[in-house]
Design goal:
The structure is a single chain. Helix content is 33%, strand content 23%. With 314 residues, the protein is of the alpha/beta class. Helix 6 runs antiparallel to helix 8. The two termini are 20 Å apart. InterPro entries: G_ERA_dom, GTP-bd, GTPase_Era-like, KH_dom-like_a/b, KH_dom_type_2, KH_sf_prok-type, P-loop_NTPase, Small_GTP-bd. Keywords: Cell membrane, Cytoplasm, GTP-binding, Membrane, Nucleotide-binding, Ribosome biogenesis, RNA-binding, rRNA-binding. It is found in: Cytoplasm; Cell membrane.
């Protein structure tokens, strides 16, 4: 894996003859299934998913190379319309940056639905960049016949290049999406090696994994302004395990009450967050992992531009 800079692709790989490579942005309002779709497209979990809106906060690049085509996926945060905090301004800037410099956009909505939140994201799409309407969660639509009038309505809202009704959890649908998107990639040499899946560092993925477990295990009790900072990510020699990684991370919250929620009765919940994160990271990193978690209160951090940047947001 390379560093944390999606804007600077690695040098071209291979001679480029007959190769296609391009940037594909995945956009949509919070909770329409963008991260689940990214993980399905890459074939491995690199973007965190939870039922809580707004769990993706960074522009995560997933890479998938099939046949002669290399797809470089840009996942974006769901566009924020409710609050004007420094954190949300940073998130929205990320979305706007992603839709402006790509070869094709996947506009993800829930099949059969269109809300004000969807409309606001749709208004960001730039003319001249082909946009595909990905009607996700098709498996949740009662009667397929209801989709036709909805599709006609959507075509009137924007000149979509194609419609792709699908479920991100259905492998056949995902393969079909690849075939459709592939036509929009420019003919040029690949930017990454054939087996690379993301340009994010392992340290970054460690922080994201802890944050996912945090939101999954606290549910609606915790505001999404809680974040995770990885203080230490060190690899140590280990004849016994082959690869051994030691991680220390701090969960940053806004209030003492949030800290109590995370720690739980006799520290049980914090212990469970650590255990589940460790188990997933051991699979992801192919290593024995030791993880220590701390919880700190930093009130008002999401409103503080400098602190938002210091916690790794762009």
């Amino acid at each position: 894996m390379t560093g944390d800079h999606p804007e600077t692709p690695a040098p071209a790989v291979g001679d480029g003859s007959g190769q296609r490579c391009g940037l594909v942005a995945i956009v949509g309002k919070p909770n329409v299934g963008k991260s689940t779709l990214l993980n399905a497209l890459v074939g491995q979990k690199i973007s965190i998913t939870s039922r809580k809106a707004q769990t993706t906060r960074h522009r995560i690049t997933g890479i998938r190379t099939t046949g002669t085509s290399q797809f470089v996926f840009v996942d974006t945060p769901g566009f924020q319309t409710r609050h004007g905090t420094a954190l949300n301004r940073s998130l929205n800037k990320t979305v706007l940056g992603a839709v402006g410099d790509v070869d094709v956009v996947l506009f993800v909505v829930e099949a059969g639905k269109f809300t004000l939140g969807d409309a606001k994201v749709l208004s960001l799409l730039k003319p001249g960049i082909p946009a595909l309407l990905v009607a996700n969660k098709l498996d949740q639509v009662g009667r397929r016949g209801d989709i036709a009038p909805w599709l006609r309505d959507m075509q009137e809202r924007h000149a979509f290049a194609e419609f792709v009704p699908m479920s991100a959890r259905n492998d056949k649908d995902v393969e079909r999406l690849f075939a459709i998107v592939g036509k929009y990639l420019p003919e040029q040499p690949w930017w990454y090696g054939e087996d690379e899946l993301t340009d994010r560092s392992e340290k970054f993925l460690a922080g994201e994994t802890v944050r996912e477990k945090l939101f999954r295990l606290t549910g609606e009790e915790l505001p999404y302004t809680s974040t995770v900072v990885v203080d230490k990510f060190e690899e140590e020699p280990s004849p016994q395990h082959g690869r051994f990684v030691r991680i220390a991370a701090t969960i940053v919250v806004e209030r003492d009450g949030h800290k109590a929620i995370i720690i739980g009765d006799k520290g049980e919940r914090l212990k469970r967050i650590g255990t589940e994160a460790r188990q997933e990271l051991e699979k992801l990193l192919g290593a024995k992992v030791f993880i220590e978690l701390w919880v700190k209160v930093r009130s008002g951090w999401a409103d503080d531009e400098a602190r938002v940047r210091s916690f790794g947001y762009e």
